[in-house]
Each structure stands twice: as C-alpha cells, then as structure tokens.
Design brief:
The complex is a heterotrimer of chains A (about 260), B (about 280) and C (about 350). With about 280 residues, chain B is mainly α. Chain B has twelve helices and two strands. Chain B has a single domain, classed as MetI-like fold (Orthogonal Bundle). In chain B, helix 3 crosses helix 7 (about 145-165) and helix 9 (about 180-210) packs antiparallel against helix 12 (about 240-275). In chain C, the strands form four sheets. Chain C has a six-stranded mixed β-sheet with strand order 6-7-8-3-9-10, with helices on both faces. Classes of the chains: A mainly alpha (about 260), B mainly alpha (about 280), C alpha+beta (about 350). The interface between A and B is large, with 92 and 97 residues.
C-alpha cells in the first residue's frame, strides 16, 4: 500500500515538475540535440530581458491583469455586501452571472464581442478598452468564488447586526468590520484572478492580437523564432503562477482549495 | 451617507457592465447563429454541420472524454494516496502544486511540452534511444499528454474534499463488523465518492472541451478541434465566417451548459451523502 | 460588583406586535411588558416566534404592526444602531479581526470615547466577565465559553439601556452552560439591567428569569413566574414543554371522576367534561402490591434508572407508559406490580 501510495504521488510530482525543469535546462542550454545538453549559456535569458518589446508587452500584461482584478473587486465587494445584507434572494442571480464564463469561455465570448464592438459607435475592438472588460468577465469566477466564500464563512450578516446593535453606522460597519473580515478572501480571489488574467491568451489573440500585444501573445510569436527564449518565458510564467498560487492558497484554509480550481 | 444605496448603485453599475460585456454578446451570439441577412434561418446551423466542423466536434468530444477519463482515474488514485498519507509536508506540497498546475494551461504549457515531446524533445530522444516510437506532440492523438498536465492535478484537488468526508471511523466500524478493507471500499467508500467522481469528471470534460490557448499555441490550428475552428472563423486566418463561428459557439455553449447542469446535479447528490457524517 | 456599574433600569414594552413572512404569521399579536430590572425569558420550540420578537426589540426586524418601546420611548421605527441595546448572539458574532479588548471597545469607539476612559472601561469589563489578562488575545484562540463572555462584555460596555440575549448558551457544553447560567443571572441582578432572553431550553428559562413567556406558533401561550408555569400550566403545550408531565387523555365518568389509562381516578369533575389529566412524575408515590392485591391505580414496572439524588421509574399503566420520580430508599424490580399513590390535589385537568 505504502509503495503504491508513494508511487502515484511521485508520478504526479514528476509529471508536473519534470516538463518545467527540462524547459528550464533547455532555456539555459545553447544546444541540446543529444541526451545531455552540449553547452550552457545565459543567452536566451539575456536576449529576453534585453528585448524592449518584452518589457513593453509585460507592462501591458500587468496593466491588463491589475485593471481586470481592480474592476472585479470594485464590482464584487459592494455587490456582495448589498446582496448579503439587504437582498439575499439575489445571490443566486449574482452566482449565475459570475459563473457565466463557464458556459461562454474566452473563445466564444470573443465571437459575440467582436460582433458588437467592431462597428460604430462602439468600435473599440482591437483596443485595450475592449480587452480589459472582456478579461474581467472571464476571470470573474475566480474572484467571485473567493470573495463569496469569505462573505459566507464570516457570517457577515450576523457581524453587521452585532456592530449595529453597538451603535455603528453603515460606513463604520463596512470599514471596521466587514472589510477587514473579508480581506483575506478578497486578496486570495484577487491573486487567483490576477494570475488568470496575466496568462489570458484567447481573448488577447482574437480581440486585439498584435495591435495591443501582451506577454502570452509575445511568447506565441517567439515560439517559432527562438525556442530557448520561449523556454525562458515558460519557466518565468510557471514561477509567477507558482508564486501567486501559493500566496493565494496561504490566505485560505485548505478546505476551500476545491473552489480555487473548480473553474479552471 | 447611506451605504445601502451606495452599494446598490455599484451593483447596478455591475449589472450594466455585465449586460454590455457578457450578457449582450452572449445573446447576440445565439441570435446570429439562428439568423441570416433576411431573418430567422438555420443557414449557419446547417453550415456548422458540414463534415469539417462535425469532425471538429467529434474530435473535441473524443479528446475531452478521453482526458477526463484518464485524469479521473489518475487523479482519484492520487487523491486517495494523499488522503491516506500521514506525511503532512508531502500532503501540503502535492496539494499546492496541484492547485497551481490545474490552472497552468496556455502558451507556456504548450511550449514546455514542445521542449520534451517536440521533434528533438528530450523525452523523445530518450524514447528513441530505448527503441520506442517517439511521441509527436503536434499530432491530435498525442494531445492528451499535454492536457493531462492540468487534468490530473485538477481531478486530484477536486477529489480531496470527498476523500476527507470519509471518516476513518467508518473504516474502523466496517472492520469491526467483519468487513475487509477492500470490502469497505466497495460497499461504502466508492458509493460515497461516486457522485463527486462523476461530477468532477464532467468538470474535467468541460475544462478540456473549452480549452483553446494550449492547443492553438501548439499547432496554430493544424489540429481540428471545435475551439480552434471557432477561432479560425473569427480571426480569419483560414476562413472567415462569423455566422459559422456563432453557430459553432452555440454548439459549444450548449455542451458546456449541459455539463454544468449535470455537475450541479452531482453536487447535490454528493452533499446528501457527505452530509450524513 | 461595584455600584459604578449599576444601570438606571428601564422597561421594554411590546404592544400588539405582528410580523408575517410569506403570508405566515411569525409573530401574531404579541403584547408584553418587561419591568425595569426584570429578566424575562421567551421560551418555545424553534419557529415559535421568540427570536423574531427579540429582534423586533433590537431593531433588526420592523414589525408589520404594533409598537415597541424602550424606557417609554417609542422605538418601533428607530434604527438598531440608535436604540442603545446590548445584544448577545448564539454564534457569539465576535469580530474575528479584532482582539478581545478590540471587541469590547468596539461600541465605545463608535461612540467616540476618549482613550483613557475607554481603556478603563475595557479593563473594568474584563474583570466583570472574569477574563483579566485576555485583552490582547485573538478571539479565535478562545473557547466557546470565553467567547461568549467577551460577547457579553462587548454588549455591556457602552452602557446599554436593556440587554437582549439570543440563545446565548445553546452553543456551549452542558457543564459550561450551567456555569455561565448562574453567572449571567448573578451579573444581571447585580447590574439591575432589564433583560430579555430567548431560549428553547426550559431549564434555562426557569432557572434564570423572573418571568417566563411560553410561545407557540407566534402567540403567547402563557406568561408567568417559573413557579406558576410549573404548578398551573394553562395548556397541554405548556404542561409538556415546562418540566416533565404524564399527560393522558381522560374520559369523563359522570361528575365524580375520569377514566385514565384504564384506571379510575376519583376526583371531582363537576361539569362532566372529557379532557386530559396530567400528573408530575415527582408527586407519584409507588407501593409494592402483593400477588392478588389490587389498587385504585396500578401499574407494572418496566425500567428503573438510578439518578443519584433519586430514581426514575418507567411503568406500564393500562396500555400507556408513565414516569415516576421516587426516592432512593425503595428497591424495585422489573415486572413488579405497584400501586400508584397520587394525592387528589396533584392532578392537573387540562382542556382537550
């Protein structure tokens, strides 16, 4: 039993880590056509970091990711607050719209979005003004799950009542009780959404393509030109996902983990 | 300041935002799938059933079903192993990395697999050396190796809570009643896990069915799947036919909606069983 | 307890309170006055309207009709945050982001107390609830009993006019519950604060309050001191809910008696009415019967449970199961035939 247990866990870890490790080695090698790389060099990495386009595209990815997260939190926290406290019956409607991308993933969202936004007066197709809202919608499930869980598990209604009976005004309730209580959930949801928005490719390709290039698109273009450089980007992307993911997981208890990935 | 109205104001803004960027595009998609220049028509739907597209649908269903099955089998075993493991560090690390990998799809993943399974990929070099046919990652039949990278850990993370709902006392109670360990799993363990297992499989199916970035980055569309066909019909690299894209999208959305409905049903079923602690 | 904590007591008055949810009356025309300094319990099964009634006093529910006043001030439409009531919840509802002291100080901060007065008040309350030295602890590290003490201190800190307790002990272990029950009552008496308690536990209601309101289906079934409720329950519901009671259908036998569980009970029945007869387990005395002997009311012993101070005997009388609590000095065996001796005035007659 123990042997089997160790075996399957080891197999999973190998399957998840080896591709990344080999990609790392590949990014550090100058030539790898035999079983063992012939020579190592930092050329791919220096090319990558020396490319102004990499920094420009990375900057756009950051702008995109942070805007999408800021928008989802700006919308979700007050809406969940209003629904929890004043209109609990609307919570299933909010869930429905937040999980919408499950049925309409990026590729097909793009089809509908292009239709609406490529003719005047709303011709914003090909600009970040369309990409940012679209990515916000697509990463909404991540943010929604975490924030809604935080509202649910903290029993926000009861806390608000306790604060009210102690004389607190609405604003004091929000600032002193609700916000600090749901903050870990908001942060972890935000970080997961950030990670997803940062790596979002389908909308970036179909809605804006090269007219407002982001990092995943940059890597897509690099694939065919410089394999070693592309390998470096893969490693970088995994490191970022790993960092953000473990930060988010650290913020929530392990039994909520399921929700973190339910809408992968 | 009245917080009630302030928060409702934001909620209405949110609704307007969703209307514009989520609901209207969704509705328009359905409408344009069922209309042409002249009004209501099945023209695009008919187009979407031409052999090339039907093949894409069949390919997508095959791939998704197969990777769901593969991921479910491996993920369930792994979750069981994590559940019964007493090493907290291993448990934590495996769970954490599964959570990250389950969401790690797209361009970076595609290229990592090119490095190991491409024409001069390291694993392929190894396979050649021992005399096994190399795995060509650009072929549709081998795509499941890439998808397994996120399906396996996703299943693992999805099954863990269900395993955790099985209490060790149940096993002890069963053995006290004279049942063997194996007998317990057949009579109690598997029936309790079953709803979550089936539900998670549906989720895995949907997860792979809607995946676009990974396969696109890998093949630039030489692999004929439903999402890549939709991408083509809107981005106009091969054909340009927004009508067909809309019809194909509706096909995909209906499949996903069905999966979601089944998933919800399985959750309710699981909640009943797991509630009986 | 120092006099500095004494509160000028005010009354709570509810007049014809009605509250309907989805067409079903949760609270149906409830009127009640809690006198200054009095502790009153609202007792009843879940869904009887007791919590809704309490929440109407707190300001979390606005009644459809009727009037709520605190200290002769009409507060029916006053928002909860302006009512100056102290509220304690079953789930504690402590703010998880604040320390023990932070929780207790919350109401004082809101009211804008200056730091030195605030700190003094917090230490005073820590002392009152016996949590000296806990001020910096996170509330998440406390046991249930400690959490509820913090919640109580938090509610009392801003000198509320009345105290509202919503099932405050229900989430606690039996031993801590009994401990806190006594403490809570002592504190309430010391402070003289008018208190309304909601509970489904009759023992809690009886032991803690000056008067008990038994509620059922949104209405008040009976209002009285614990003694009144126990001795003269007004309805079968109250009789069954407050204390243990053998309550059996009774068929009229003319004006001089009833037939109960196949036995004849000779007590005056002037109106010759059918109804129910009840008798408390502890008023029944058991006498062994020899073979061939018979008695007015007789039964067969099924089970004897030793309880330390006394013993509980389960009997079959006719076809029914009865319970008696008798002293320890007699030893009974299973299947033994006994005579049930019940004083005439111990019977309670209740309408059907």
């Amino acid at each position: 039993m123990t042997f089997l247990r160790r075996g399957i866990i080891g197999l999973l870890l190998a399957y998840l880590l080896l591709p990344i490790l080999m990609t790392l080695v590949y990014s550090l090698s100058s030539s790898w056509t035999e079983l063992v790389p012939k020579a190592f060099s930092l050329e791919a990495w220096s090319h990558l970091f020396g490319d102004p386009k990499f920094w420009a595209d990375g900057g756009r990815s950051l702008i995109l990711a942070f805007s999408a997260v800021a928008l989802s939190i700006f919308f979700l926290v007050p809406t969940l607050f209003a629904i929890t406290l004043y209109a609990p019956k609307l919570s299933s409607a909010l869930e429905f719209f937040s999980l919408w991308p499950f049925v309409f993933p990026g590729v097909i969202m793009a089809v509908g979005l292009i239709k609406i936004f490529s003719t005047p007066p709303l011709a914003i197709s090909g600009t970040p003004w369309l990409l940012i809202p679209a990515v916000t919608v697509v990463v909404m499930p991540y943010a929604y799950r975490a924030v809604a869980n935080a509202f649910e598990s903290a029993d926000v209604r009861q806390l608000a009542e306790a604060a009210r009976s102690l004389g607190a005004s609405d604003l004091q309730i929000l600032a002193w009780v609700i916000f600090p209580t749901v903050l870990p959930g908001v942060l972890s949801g935000g970080v997961l959404a950030l990670s997803a928005a940062f790596g979002e490719f389908s909308l970036a390709q179909l809605l804006v393509g090269s007219s407002w290039e982001t990092l995943p698109y940059y890597q897509y273009l690099t694939n065919s030109q410089d394999g070693h450089k592309s390998a470096a980007i893969s490693v970088l992307a995994f490191a970022i996902a790993w960092g953000l993911g473990s930060f988010a997981l650290g913020l929530r208890s392990s039994d909520n983990l399921k929700d973190a990935v339910t809408l992968a | 300041m009245n917080l009630r109205w302030a928060t409702f104001a934001v909620a209405f803004l949110f609704l307007a935002f969703l209307l514009m960027f989520e609901i209207l595009p969704g509705i328009l998609l359905v409408v344009s799938a069922f209309t042409n220049k002249f009004g209501f028509s099945f023209e695009h739907i008919q187009e979407a059933t031409k052999p090339l597209f039907l093949k894409a649908l069949v390919n997508s269903v095959n791939l998704s079903f197969f990777t769901a099955l593969e991921g479910a089998a491996l993920g369930t075993l792994t979750a069981g192993a994590i559940w019964s493991s007493k090493n907290v560090k291993v448990k934590r690390f495996t769970t954490a990395i599964s959570g990250v990998a389950a969401n790690f799809a797209g361009v970076p993943l595609a290229f990592a697999f090119v490095v190991i399974l491409g024409s001069s990929g390291i694993v392929n070099l190894l396979l050649e050396r021992v005399g096994i046919e190399p795995i060509d990652v650009y072929r549709r039949q081998n795509l499941h190796w890439v998808y397994l990278y996120f399906q396996w850990p996703l299943m693992t993370v999805l099954m863990l809570p269900a395993f955790n709902a099985i209490q060790r006392e149940w096993l002890e109670a069963a053995r006290g009643l004279g049942s063997s360990s194996l007998g317990f799993w057949f009579k109690v363990g598997i029936p309790v896990l079953l709803p979550t297992l089936l539900g998670s499989m549906i989720l895995l199916f949907a997860n792979s069915f809607g995946a676009y970035a990974t396969v696109y980055a890998l093949s630039q569309g030489s692999i004929n799947l439903l999402p890549t066909q939709i991408g083509f019909q809107v981005s106009g690299q091969v054909g340009y036919d927004p009508g067909a894209a809309a019809a194909l999208s509706v096909m995909m959305a209906v499949t996903l909606l069905l999966s979601l409905a089944l998933y919800r049903f399985s959750r309710r079923w699981a909640a009943q069983l797991e509630g009986a602690k | 307890m120092t006099n500095a904590n004494a509160i000028s007591s005010v009354n709570i008055k509810l007049e014809n309170i009605k509250k309907t949810y989805n067409g079903k009356a949760a609270v149906d025309n409830v009127s009640l006055e809690v006198k200054p300094g009095e502790m009153v319990s609202l007792l009843g099964p879940s869904g009887c309207g007791k919590t809704t009634t309490l929440r109407a006093v707190a300001g979390f529910e606005i009644p459809d009709s009727g009037r709520v006043s605190i200290g002769d001030q009409d507060v029916t439409k006053v928002p909860a945050e302006q009512r100056r009531v102290g509220m304690v919840f079953q789930s504690y509802a402590l703010f998880p982001n604040l320390s023990v002291a932070g929780n207790i100080a919350f109401g004082l901060r809101v009211a804008g107390w200056e730091a030195s007065k605030l700190n003094a008040r917090v230490s005073e309350l820590l002392e009152v609830v016996g949590l000296n030295g806990f001020d910096r602890r996170s509330v998440l590290t406390l046991s249930g009993g400690q959490r509820q003490r913090v919640a109580l201190a938090r509610a009392l800190a801003p000198n509320p006019r009345v105290l509202l307790l919503d099932e405050p002990l229900s989430a606690l272990d039996a031993k801590i519950r009994a401990e806190l029950r006594t403490e809570l009552r002592r504190l309430q008496l010391d402070l003289g604060i008018t208190t309304l308690l909601v509970t489904h536990d009759q023992e809690e209601a009886m032991s803690m309050s000056d008067r008990v309101v038994v509620m059922n289906q949104g209405r008040i079934e009976q209002l009285g001191t614990p003694r009144d409720l126990y001795a003269t329950p007004a309805s079968p519901f109250v009789a069954a809910f407050v204390g243990a009671m053998n309550l059996m259908p009774a068929e009229a036998l003319g004006n001089s008696g009833f037939r109960v569980s196949g036995q004849t009970v000779n007590i005056p029945n002037l109106e010759n009415k059918t109804g129910r007869l009840g008798v408390r387990p502890e008023v029944i005395d058991l006498k062994p019967l020899e073979a061939g002997q018979s008695a007015a009311i007789q039964g067969v012993i099924e089970l004897v449970t030793y309880l330390g101070a006394d013993q509980q005997v389960i009997l079959k009388v006719g076809g029914d199961t009865w319970v008696a609590r008798v002293e320890n000095d007699q030893v009974f065996g299973r299947g033994q035939k006994v005579s049930l001796e019940i004083p005439q005035n111990a019977w309670l007659w209740l309408p059907a």
